[in-house]
Amino acid sequence: MGKKTITVLTNEKKRIDIYMRENTNLTRSCIHRLIRYGKVLLNGKKIFVRHTKVKNGDIIEYFEEMQNGIEIKKTDIPLDIIYEDENILIINKQPGLVVHPAPSHLDDTLVNALIDKYIKRESFLDKGTRPGIIHRLDKDTSGVMIIAKNMQAREKFINIFKSKEITKIYRCIVHGEINEEGFINTNIGRDYKNRKKFTARVLGGKNAQTIYTPLEIFNRATLLNVRILTGRTHQIRVHMNFIGNEVVGDFVYGNKTKDLELAQSLGYTEKTYRELLPRQMLHAYAVEFIHPFKNKKMIFEADIPDDFNHLLSLLEKERKR
C-alpha cells in the first residue's frame, strides 16, 4: 500500500478534505472515502471526520491506493505489445491510460489490462495494486514501458533502475527554437504554492539531470531527443518549463498562450486548438538495458503515436511554406 505525505502550508486553518482536494489529484468523493475508512492520518493519528481542521506545519499522510487484498478487476483494454518472454513484457503505452488502480481509477488502468491476460496474480507474493509495475509514465505520456511477469523479474528490474543500468530516451515537442544540445542539472521537489506540481529548485528536493538534443527545428517549436539520467516525477516537463521551452500541450507545466498561438499558426482556433493538442507531446521512445535473465543487451523502441505525428506533419508543412 503506497503512503503519501503532505506538509500543510497555509496561513489559515482549513478543513482537511478541502486542503487535500486543493493539493492532491484525488476527487472529493475519494478523499471522503479515505477519511471514512481511516486511510488518512493527521500528525500520525487516524482521522475519521472530514471537517477536521489543519494548520500550517501539520503533516497529512494518506494511502492513495486501496488496501492490500483488493480484487483487481480484469478489463479488456487493448495493448500494443512490443516484446514478450517468460519474464518481461514491453509495451507501447497509449496516451490517456493510467498505470495502476487508485480511488479515482478502479478498473480502467494498465494493471487491469495486464491482470489474468499477460501476468498471473499468483506470480506475485503481495496483493497490492501494482503487480508487474516497475516504473510509471504519466497518464498522458505515451511510450515504452517494461512490465515484470513475476516477482523475481520485478526485483531484478527495480535494481537495474536503482543502479541506473538502463538508458531511457524520450521524444518531445517543445516551444521555441532550440539549436544546440543542452544539459539541465537541478533539484526537483514539490512546488511550495501548489502541492500537485513539482518545480526545479536550488535547495531541497532530489537531484535531476536531463540531456536534450534538437532533431528538427520548426518555426515555433523543436522536436527534441531527451535522455534522462535520473527518474524524477514529471522530470522532463519540469525541466523544459525551467528553461522556458515548455512541452507543447502540457496542461500543468506548459504555456497556454504559446499553445494557442502555435495552434492558430497551423489553422486551428481558440475553440478547436485542443483537438490538435489534447495532451503533452511527450513520448517515451526507447529503452536499452542488459536483460537480467538472458545476459544480452536489448533495445526497444515504441512507435510515435498518431496525435504526435499529426502535429509534426503540420509543423513540417508550415516550415516549407
Explain how this protein is built.
The protein folds into 3 domains: 3-63, Roll (Structural Genomics Hypothetical 15.5 Kd Protein In mrcA-pckA Intergenic Region, Chain A), CATH 3.10.290.10; 80-163, Pseudouridine synthase (2-Layer Sandwich), CATH 3.30.2350; 168-320, Pseudouridine synthase, CATH 3.30.2350.10. The chain is 22% helix and 30% strand. It is built from 8 helices and 16 strands. It has helices at residues 16-23, 28-36, 110-114, 151-162, 235-242, 256-265, 273-276, 306-320; strands spanning 3-7, 14-15, 40-42, 45-46, 53-54, 59-63, 80-84, 88-93, 142-148, 166-175, 182-190, 198-201, 206-217, 221-228, 282-291, 296-301. The strands form 3 sheets. Strands 7, 8, 9, 10, 11, 12, 13, 14, 15 and 16 form a 10-stranded mixed beta sheet that branches. A 4-stranded antiparallel beta sheet has the order 1-6-3-4, with no helix packed on it. The protein has a two-stranded antiparallel sheet with strand order 2-5. A hairpin with a 3-residue loop joins β13 (206-217) and β14 (221-228). α1 packs across α2.
